[in-house]
Amino acid sequence: MGEIWSIILAAGESKRMGFPKMFLEFNGSTMIENVIEHVAGSDTDGILVVLGAGSDDLMSLVGKYDVRYCYNEHYKEGMLSSVQCGFRNLPAELDAVMVFQGDQPFITPLVINSVISEYRSSGRGIVIPVFHGKRGHPLLLDSKYRDQIETLDPSEGLRSIARIYSAEVLEVETNEPGILRDFDTYDEYIKGLNQTR
Fold first, then answer.
1. How many CA atoms lie within 13 A of 127 on its CB side?
2. Which of 22, 47, 94, 145 has the fewest Cβ atoms nearer than 10 Å?
3. Among the CATH numbers 3.90.550.10, 3.90.25.10, 3.30.70.100, 3.40.640.10, which is that of 4-195?
4. What is the pLDDT of residues 120-169, one digit of tens each?
């Protein structure tokens, strides 16, 4: 079997938060460190972190881990540009890629491994965890979609690949609402923080 890599998106400007959310304290460290540690604790074969806004400061955190990283000079153009940057900087030969957001620290290795296992056993090209019928992260994509991702409409984003190739989608039911949780505002962060205490 070939490798499955993970892309962690940490290039955004955190406009709605008002300050860089990757550095927010979470469960004894920072938000981005929690995400990296959870992904690293799974069966993924490698991790690539996509940097953009505040990249120099983020490197002080990311550099502590056994991960690769790339810089998205077009990060102001939105999340899809970071996904595309990540895919361009992955190893040439791999089976699939999982895409994570840097502000989703509740995604556990258990969920990640479940997505990987279902991909390996199902033969489907797109695997998405769901909670009560709602699709969350990480989104797993077979490497055969690599070229297609370069041509996606930025206004629709990465999720449009699941619409274009709907017959290739496998939804994996989970018992973890954390696959849906991210943090765009400070109020959301405080609520999330209280859940960890």
1. 25
2. 94
3. 3.90.550.10
4. 999 999 999 999 999 999 999 999 999 999 999 888 888 899 999 999 99
Beta-carbon contacts of residue 123 (< 8 Å; ≥ 6 apart):
none
Residue position matching structure tokens 């881990």: 65
Strand-pair category, 169-173 with 126-131: parallel
Q: Which two tokens stand for residue 3?
A: 């490798």
| 172, 115 Cβ separation under 8 angstroms | yes
106: tokens are: 């509740």
Residue 57: in which H helix or E strand, if any? helix 55-62
Number of residues that make up the chain? 197
Domain boundaries, given as residue ranges, for the chain: 4-195
